[in-house]
Backbone:
């Protein structure tokens, strides 16, 4: 009641509107000359959507419509079940023509969902598409006041009144077009990056594939088999790796990282640091005049190297030399010097002989390339599960992660595919798999989200040991089995039938018998409501996944947002799942969030398709929501330049003065610059000061005729 009284009191004072508000409404932007059509008296059409019962269930639609008709400058008001439908849009088109409307307000859901739809309808009605304003009465109204019909209705009226005030002052805006470089970039060469690069290359687009490691393939190259079909991972992956290495349109850069990014969609200039590999490729050798030289992968250098280090590809369970390849299937098949380990003894140089492939004085190289679009496919890392001290990882030798288990059971792994205990090399007979190790963990130590594929690859591991070790007994400790994909549920039942024992409940701790090195598990069976004490030979932790180490740095370079969990954030989870808030930058694979291999490949294909569209069009249209500098007011202080989150502003010399200049293609119209400009020298198109003040006045003063 107090709120309503306040509104009435303020409404009664409408005749005493502050002079500042009036002048702000009528102020003419120095940098924008209004077209002749804008001199017409405003005639706004208001269209209210029921959204089924999403809005109509909480908002009195007829009451809101009648209220809209009473607002200043409203010439027409209507409602419909679904305004976004073809009949709903037809209503807008017809009303514009029949009522000579100058602006459109649609009161419906979030602009993120349907703003382009209603812009198109506005344009088809004969108006400039940017003479459209949306009032969000679903997310910000009916949904948050679901059980308060009066409050939701009042809020819908407020939202429409505010939108009408702005729509009355909207101007024609003309989108800008910029040319697009016929080239793309993919950052990260796991299965997602490779698939995206191949799709782009096959579409006739020059593609730069950037990978920080000496070889492509990513995490998938470390797997033995894939679920639920149990295909050999390398048999699937290796041909694709070879295709990437042979593709004419792919410029593969391994041992490389993105150093800097400048520009905008269609015109990104990317600086790449090609790290010194210490070994020349045949092409590099030829460029230096070494006929028939360069590395051919013979391994003579590795054979004589005296330095032995743990191999990270084998999770440290197998040694490698200071000059090495990760595995025989690497692409490109070129050896790499580990500079942190190399003692520069020169034995490898001697062994290489006439090929002269090894250069121990090689330096990093910076390369600049121009691309129209970019795809980020930076993958994931394993959560450091040793932080969950109760399970004994890195404390007890026979506690391993799922990825370490993959290498132990893989034919190309450190034990030749023979599963043995790390402590004594004995074949285990009882193996416990602990699911959700660090996932779905709200203790503050682990990750609150589901890592998504851990259930299924643990079931795969159970099958593998049943297949390989006669008489073995796998125990699977789980919270919930999430077999969500095609054929996944059938695979789950198959593992049950094969003899795996499932225990629903968290494992409290894992202890070690110091004499036998066996592991003692203390847990709870929540289905039987009883504690469990179990002695096993090995424990395998299905460790949570997290964004890769370079993800945050890379996303900052490309101006991409991230979620609270650190995963790269898409523009819209349903309508634009591959795009980002930075136009021309797309996401593929697990960098966006946990995915299994089929979903990863699908997202990569989607990202490649989206990234190819502006390239094939040859130009891209930009929304005209960019700042404009009113040069006569600009003092050239540079405050706006330092504050711009998109690096869209710069200072230039013009007629003897230093003024701000906007790179329109980079500007997102966020308004940060305008909000901080001490001289009021920045004009925000579509969010101009008179328009904003009109909205404020409409809210505070009311809008009844």
Residues:
């Amino acid at each position: 009641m107090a709120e309503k009284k306040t509104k009435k009191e303020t409404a009664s004072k409408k005749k005493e509107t502050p002079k500042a508000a009036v002048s702000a409404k009528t102020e003419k932007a120095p940098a924008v000359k209004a077209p002749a059509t804008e001199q017409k008296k405003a005639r706004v059409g208001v269209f209210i959507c029921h959204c089924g019962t999403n809005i109509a269930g909480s908002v009195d639609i007829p009451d809101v419509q009648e209220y809209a008709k009473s607002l200043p400058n409203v010439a027409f008001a209507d409602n419909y079940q679904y305004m976004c439908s073809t009949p709903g849009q037809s209503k807008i088109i017809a009303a514009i023509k029949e009522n000579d409307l100058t602006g459109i307000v649609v009161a419906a859901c979030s602009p993120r969902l349907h703003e382009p739809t209603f812009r198109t309808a506005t344009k088809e009605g004969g108006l400039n598409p940017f003479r459209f304003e949306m009032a969000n009465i679903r997310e910000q109204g009916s949904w948050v006041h679901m059980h308060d019909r009066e409050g939701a209705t009042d809020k819908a009226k407020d939202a429409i009144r505010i939108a009408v005030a702005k729509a009355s002052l909207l101007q024609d805006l003309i989108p800008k077009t910029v040319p697009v470089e016929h080239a793309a970039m993919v950052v990260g060469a796991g299965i997602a990056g490779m698939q995206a690069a191949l799709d782009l290359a096959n579409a006739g687009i020059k593609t730069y594939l950037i990978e920080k490691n000496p070889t492509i393939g990513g995490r998938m190259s470390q797997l033995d088999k894939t679920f639920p079909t149990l295909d050999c991972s390398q048999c699937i992956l290796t041909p694709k790796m070879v295709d990437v290495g042979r593709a004419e349109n792919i410029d593969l850069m391994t041992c490389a990282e993105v150093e800097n990014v400048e520009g905008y969609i269609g015109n990104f200039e990317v600086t790449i640091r090609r790290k010194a590999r210490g070994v020349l490729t045949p092409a590099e050798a030829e460029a230096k005049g070494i006929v028939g030289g360069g590395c051919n992968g013979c391994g003579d250098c590795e054979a004589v190297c005296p330095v032995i280090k743990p191999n990270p590809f084998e999770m440290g369970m197998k040694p490698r030399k200071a000059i090495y390849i990760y595995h025989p299937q690497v692409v490109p098949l070129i050896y790499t010097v580990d500079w942190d380990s190399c003692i520069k003894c020169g034995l490898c140089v001697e062994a290489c002989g006439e090929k002269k492939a090894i250069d121990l004085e090689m330096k990093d190289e910076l390369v600049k390339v121009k691309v129209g679009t970019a795809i980020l496919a930076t993958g994931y890392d394993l959560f450091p599960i040793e932080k969950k001290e109760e399970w004994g990882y890195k404390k007890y030798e026979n506690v391993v992660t799922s990825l370490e288990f993959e290498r132990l059971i893989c034919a190309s792994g450190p034990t030749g595919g023979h599963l043995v205990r790390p402590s004594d090399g004995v074949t285990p007979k009882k193996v416990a798999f602990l699911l959700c190790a660090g996932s779905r963990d709200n203790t503050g130590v682990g990750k609150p989200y589901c890592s998504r594929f851990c259930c299924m690859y643990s079931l795969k591991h159970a099958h593998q040991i049943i297949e390989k070790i006669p008489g073995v007994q796998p125990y699977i400790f789980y919270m919930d089995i999430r077999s969500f994909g095609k054929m996944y549920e059938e695979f789950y039942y198959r593992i049950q039938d094969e003899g795996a024992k499932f225990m629903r409940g968290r494992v409290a701790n894992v202890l070690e018998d110091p004499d036998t090195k066996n592991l003692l598990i203390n847990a709870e069976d929540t289905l039987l409501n009883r504690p469990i004490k179990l002695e096993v030979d090995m424990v395998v932790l299905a460790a949570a996944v997290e964004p890769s180490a370079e993800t945050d740095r890379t996303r900052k370079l490309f101006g991409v947002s991230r979620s609270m969990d650190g995963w790269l954030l898409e523009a819209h989870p349903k309508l634009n799942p591959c795009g980002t808030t930075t136009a021309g930058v797309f996401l593929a694979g697990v960098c966006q969030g946990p995915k299994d291999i089929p979903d990863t490949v699908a997202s990569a294909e989607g990202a490649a398709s989206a990234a190819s569209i502006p390239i094939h069009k040859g130009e891209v249209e930009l929304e005209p929501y960019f700042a404009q500098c009113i040069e006569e007011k600009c003092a050239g202080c540079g405050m706006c330049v330092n504050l711009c989150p998109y690096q869209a502003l710069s200072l230039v010399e013009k007629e003897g003065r230093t003024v701000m200049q906007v790179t329109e293609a980079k500007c997102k119209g966020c308004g940060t610059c305008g909000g901080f400009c001490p001289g009021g020298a920045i004009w925000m198109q579509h969010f101009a000061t008179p328009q904003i003040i009109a909205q404020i006045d409409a809210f505070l003063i009311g809008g009844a005729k």
Summary: The domain at 41-175 is CATH 3.40.50 (Rossmann fold). The first helix runs from residue 2 to 12.
